[in-house]
Amino acid sequence: TIPTLVKAIGIELSETNLETYIGDFANFGLTAYAKTEGFAVANSFKVEWSINSNVVATLTQTDSEANGSYCLLVFTGELGSATVTAKLSNILNGQVVDSFEETFTVIVNKAPIVRYTFDNGEIKNTGTNQDVNGRITTINSDNTAILDTPDAEVDYVNGADGTQNSALQLSNIRNGGNHFTISGLDLGTGDFTIKVKINIRQLTSKTDSSNYLFGIGNIKDAESGFFNIAYKKNGSKNQIKLRANGQTYWCGYAPVGEWAEFTLVREGNTLSLYINPEVNSEGIKVTEVTLSSTEALALSNYDIGFSSNVGCQNPGDWPTYYDDIMIFDYAVHPAQ
After folding, report:
1. Per-residue pLDDT of the chain (336 residues; tens, 9 = 90+)
2. N or C: which end of the chain has fewer CB within 10 A?
3. ∠ CA 57-60-64, rounded to 5°
């Protein structure tokens, strides 16, 4: 029987992109897999790695196997982006017959000024601004003040990455419910980004968008410069609302019982809300709003509340999970 050489018919990478922040990773592993036909015979193809810039990372090829190759990105601690290319070539009689390429993009951003995680039931801020105060709160009976509740019984649940006890379970109940509030942040009318992973556990019965997700108040308590994001029942889906400019903007649908990342970006006088994934688009959906003035939104006068805030309605107990809350003092638009 004449042995059949393995032939690569394509290449696939273990990851297609990575958006990270200074200090998140010292290095990152990447694997290229060969899509093959025929029987595996070593050295019938090869994989070569290259990187277009060594500013944010250097590349080291650490291992090579008959069906693929592994490389390691070592981060330099600098901001910027780079593109890694994996080139797979079929080899016959020592000669390259044909080749396939795939690319991987890495973006290294400035670290967030606020980053709250909840691993092992511990509220921890690893952001660069250690003066902010993130804590469990509720609203008083008159709906006029935020009350700290350090002794509240809080449930910690599996996080977005599946890690046990690494996400907060909060409640939309206004008076006596568990909320998370961040105070002491002053970004004024400058650019910012808020990123948070949210798991809305149930289809709400409320059709009046009174289920609050996060924001800096409501028109009832914030005369100007406020925004909030909430949701309501629309058919069999939870529909997301962005309230800004004193107006309501409908922004798509969040999954029920699954994690989604919400990213709110202010850049100049444009406010953008990204939902990933969004139910109808099966990917990222972005809604853009032009602010009526620079002062139409100000991250200085109000606390940022998650699951409820002063002035909000009281829809009832619709439990929602929150994980990895990040705030940046610049615009970070997700890759689409």
Report:
1. 445 566 788 899 999 899 898 888 899 999 998 887 765 554 577 888 999 999 999 998 777 665 678 999 999 999 999 999 999 888 888 888 889 999 999 999 999 999 999 999 999 999 999 999 999 999 998 888 899 999 999 999 999 999 999 999 999 888 889 999 999 999 999 999 999 999 999 999 999 888 999 998 655 444 567 789 999 999 999 999 998 888 889 999 999 999 999 999 999 999 999 999 999 887 889 999 999 889 888 888 678 999 988 778 888 888 899 999 999 999 999 875
2. N
3. 145
* Beta-strand relationship, 17-21 and 95-109: parallel
* CB contact at 8 A, 203 and 256: yes
Paired strand residues for 263: 195, 274
Residues 6+ apart with CB under 8 A from 253: 234, 237, 238, 239, 240, 278, 279, 280
Contact predicate 55/82, CB 8 Å: yes
What would the two tokens of residue 144 be?
A: 């006029």
Cβ contact 267:297 at 8 Å = no
Q: Side chain identity at 308, as an amino acid letter? A: S
